[in-house]
Amino acid sequence: MLPETNSALVSGVRNWTLWFVASRPYAGRMSLLLLIDGYNVLAPSAPPRSPDPMWLHRERAQLLERLATHLPGSVRQRTQVVFDAANPPRDRPDRFVYQDIDVQFAVNYPEADDLLEEIIRGHSSPKQLAVVSSDHRVQTAASRRSAEAFDSQSWLDSLLDGNLRLSPRANVIDRDAGEGRGDHGDDDLKLKAEDVNDWMDEFGF
Predict the structure, then answer these.
(1) pLDDT per residue over 145-174, tens digit each?
(2) Where are the domains positioned within the chain?
(3) Is the pTM of this model over 0.90?
C-alpha cells in the first residue's frame, strides 16, 4: 500500500505544480516583447509523407527548444508562443512556462488568430511589441496598434543565423541572438526521442 500512496502523492503534487505554473505564467514579469504565432512558424515544415501520430508534437517541442536556445534570457522572459488547440489535452494546463517562455494553447478560441488579436489589443505598450506571423489577419492587428510585424520564416531564419529581430522601440538591453542557454549546432537542436517523450509527458500531450 505504501508505494501506491507515494505514487498518488507524487501525482497530486505534480498536477498541482503544473496548474500553478500554468495559471501564473506572468507573475512578476515585464510587458510582452515578442509574440509568436506557433503553428504559423511551423507551417513551412510540411508533414512527412506517412506521418506518425507524434510528429506535430515533436515539431512544437523543437520550435520551443530553438527559441530557448537562441533567445537571450531577458527576451525569453517576455516572449509568448500561441498554438491552435482544436483538440486540447484533457485535464492538463493549456498554458505553461517552458524555459522562461510563456506557451499558450488557444483553448476556448475559434483559432489562434483570435487569441493573438486579443493579446495585441490588450498590450499596454504595443509599439515595443514584435509579432511573428505571416498571417495577414495577425499582421493587420499588429499594424493597427503600431506593433512591429515579421514574416515567420524570415524571422526564424534570422534568429538561427544569430540575428534577433525585435521592435526597434523595444526596451531591452540584450538583442543578441544565440545568448540563450548556450550556442548549439544543428545536431544539438535535433531533440533526442527520450527528451521529446519527457517533454510531452510533462505537459500531457
Answers:
(1) 999 999 999 999 999 999 999 999 987 656
(2) 2-203
(3) no
